[in-house]
Amino acid sequence: xxxxxxxxxxxxxxxxxxxxxxxxxxxxxxxxxxxxxxxxxxxxxxxxxxxxxxxxxxxxxxxxxxxxxxxxxxxxxxxxxxxxxxxxxxxxxxxxxxxxxxxxxxxxxxxxxxxxxxxxxxxxxxxxxxxxxxxxxxxxxxxxxxxxxxxxxxxxxxxxxxxxxxxxxxxxxxxxxxxxxxxxxxxxxxxxxxxxxxxxxxxxxxxxxxxxxxxxxxxxxxxxxxxxxxxxxxxxxxxxxxxxxxxxxxxxxxxxxxxxxxxxxxxxxxxxxxxxxxxxxxxxxxxxxxxxxxxxxxxxxxxxxxxxxxxxxxxxxxxxxxxxxxxxxxxxxxxxxxxxxxxxxxxxxxxxxxxxxxxxxxxxxxxxxxxxxxxxxxxxxxxxxxxxxxxxxxxxxxxxxxxxxxxxxxxxxxxxxxxxxxxxxxxxxxxxxxxxxxxxxxxxxxxxxxxxxxxxxxxxxxxxxxxxxxxxx
Length: 473
Ligand SMILES: Cc1cc2nc3c(=O)[nH]c(=O)nc-3n(C[C@H](O)[C@H](O)[C@H](O)COP(=O)(O)OP(=O)(O)OC[C@H]3O[C@@H](n4cnc5c(N)ncnc54)[C@H](O)[C@@H]3O)c2cc1C
Prior knowledge:
Blueprint: E1 8-9, E2 19-20, E3 23-26, H1 30-39, E4 45-48, E5 64-67, E6 74-78, E7 83-87, H2 92-106, E8 110-111, H3 124-130, E9 146-153, E10 158-162, H4 167-173, E11 181-189, E12 191-192, E13 195-204, H5 208-217, E14 222-227, E15 239-247, H6 252-261, H7 268-280, H8 282-295, E16 300-302, H9 315-322, E17 331-340, H10 344-357, E18 362-370, E19 385-394, H11 398-417, E20 421-422, H12 432-438, H13 442-452, H14 461-471
Parallel strand pairs: 3-5, 4-5
Antiparallel strand pairs: 1-2, 6-7, 7-11, 8-12, 9-10, 9-11, 13-15, 13-16, 14-15, 14-18, 17-19, 17-20, 18-19
The structure holds flavin-adenine dinucleotide (FAD).
Flavin-adenine dinucleotide binds next to strand 4, helix 3 and strand 11.
């Protein structure tokens, strides 16, 4: 048995999920996974893509970890209907890059519809498993962009899963956190690429939903609101930079040239400085960030590459080396709350008071919108919601972890009290009561899991923890 560093895996952002596996195996193909299922009959498997989930969704202590990082090729491109098939380990950044080349080769103009906004090295398999969303307006989560996928089931059989052939498994697997099958190849729907112009304004949470809706009526197709993170200021959570994007009619090649050459962008160095400021001088961080955004008002972007983002890997190690402040050590943990739109302002005001009283350390936060998802079994977008994301600093000692858990639970309670919900992909701190209130279908989800995978070949620490909390009830 292999022990030690090569069998230990952790998530990339919070780094709070270090897990020892029996083996970590790089997936080469669907047949490879079939062979592994048959070779390791007495073992359970978990599946990891980009390792961004933060509650152990991709890891299993002493299990076999199927790592898809080298399973990352384009499989098929239908340039007439805009369908792209990729291996599940492909990362969004690589997909956008490859799609650009395919567009050039076939002289067509297809774009992705949405991707996670904060990072590019998130896999398509991981995105399917969490049913991600981006900052697209007027659209449902990722499930709406998925045409079909191929799955290796727990018994080793291979199936094509779509709305037409095996609708139940389609709805369970998308947003099902790798518990029903290994997803091998995924076919996603693309959209016609359009140059977009960015409009930036300073906005307040009180009018935000009306403003979003007005801008959508005027034709905005993407947008978000990035709020002030300085808990010492009155503007905390209530003032922010609202940036929206409108399709425009400019020649595609012209648009690509404009955004590649003259657009103002934040360099990696500027990002590092912003991250440093977000830890030591939050007011300055917000002012610097909003000033940058204001200067980009009117810039033109391509609808695929503008969704790419800058993420500085291991930035906390760098902060620890360069910064004297007490919060330079540790990491950040994200949480996402879903709020009925008309309650957004109230939610932000209540959260403001709670986070202040708990001295929570907000590093970044944003608001986006989502349409109702009527398909996925574990749907998080049960209604049309405003999605509020907080990136909180977390120190890695028991007392701080308990404090963070308390803050995350408080935010979930506020969201639930307003008829909202929370995202399962981040921390695992929600209580059993919160889980059942937000996902009343979770017990049936477990029954379906047992039906499709009675021997528990696909498992994760996250799932084990949730099941234990249900049993303890
Ligand atoms: C900085 C940052 C920004 C983020 N921004 C957003 C955002 O804007 N929007 C959003 O919705 N989410 C966002 N996320 C969350 C992220 O999109 C999800 O956690 C996603 O699941 C991560 O995918 P991954 O490739 O990193 O997969 P992992 O974290 O490795 O795995 C996630 C889940 O996918 C399963 N899985 C992976 N590959 C397969 C496969 N081939 N077959 C079956 N199951 C599989 C795993 O078992 C696990 O349950 C962000 C996370 C971070 C850290």
